[in-house]
Amino acid sequence: MQITVTVNGVTYTHDVEPRLLLVHYLRDVLNLTGTHIGCDTSQCGACTILMNGKAVKSCTIFAVQADGAEITTIEGLARDGQLHPVQEGFWEKHGLQCGYCTPGMIMTAVDFLQRNPNPTEEEIRHAIEGNLCRCTGYQNIVRAIQYAAEKMRSGS
Ligand code: FES
Ligand code: FES
């Protein structure tokens, strides 16, 4: 089936098999390997991307379901060589160790902060419930998202 999708501002048209998962389309067809695969049970969240502005697990969607959609992956977050505030937060607050979960965590946080710019710690923890990290113990991830929230509110 033919699909047309816009990924990180670039429009692509491809013939894909109906069974191709969106995460495999991004990684194997577009070579955007920043989106990770951490499980085969839709649990880990490593594959999270933004589809039409909403965070979704790209292993739970077929590429054909993304036909006509606007997609943002971790590769599309930085602007003009400037990290997105959430990326900067992970950098500043040491929000990662192995980094496997990080792209998914960041995309989830970007969507969350758009909806809740001034979250409590509890709300942040709730927001990242669908993203598993086996390294950090989550504390610095929460701090990274708090850093980003503050930075985005101050508009700097
Ligand atoms: S790879 Fe998608 S949830 Fe784990
Ligand atoms: S930093 Fe290793 S899984 Fe999160």
Radius of gyration (Å): 15 Å
Mean pLDDT: 97
How do the helices and strands follow one another from N- to C-terminus? EEHEEEHHHH
**Broad structural category:** alpha+beta
Instruction: Give helix % range.
Output: 25-40%
DSSP summary: helix tally: 5
Q: Bound compounds, please?
A: FE2/S2 (inorganic) cluster
Gap between N and C termini: 44 Å
Q: Runs with pLDDT <50, length 5+?
A: none
What is the approximate shape? globular
What is the topology, as strand order, of the major beta sheet?
2-1-5-3-4
Main beta-sheet strand count, sense and barrel state: 5 strands, mixed
How many beta-strand runs? 5
Oligomer class: single chain
Portion in strands = 5-15%
Q: What do you see in this structure?
A:
34% of the residues lie in helices and 15% in strands. β1 and β2 form a beta hairpin. The chain is built from 5 helices and 5 strands; from the N terminus they run ββαβββαααα. It has a 5-stranded mixed beta sheet with strand order 2-1-5-3-4, covered by helices on one side. With 156 residues, the protein is of the alpha+beta class. The protein starts with a strand and ends with a helix. The relative contact order is 0.16. One FE2/S2 (inorganic) cluster binds next to loops.
Task: Describe the structure using short key phrases.
single chain; 156 residues; 5-stranded mixed sheet; 5 helices; 34% helix
Short précis:
The protein is of the alpha+beta class.
List the helices and strands and how they pair.
Elements (H helix, E strand, L loop, with lengths): L1 E6 L2 E6 L6 H8 L18 E4 L2 E4 L12 E3 L12 H8 L9 H14 L5 H7 L11 H16 L2
Parallel strand pairs: 1-5
Antiparallel strand pairs: 1-2, 3-4, 3-5
One FE2/S2 (inorganic) cluster (FES) binds next to loops.
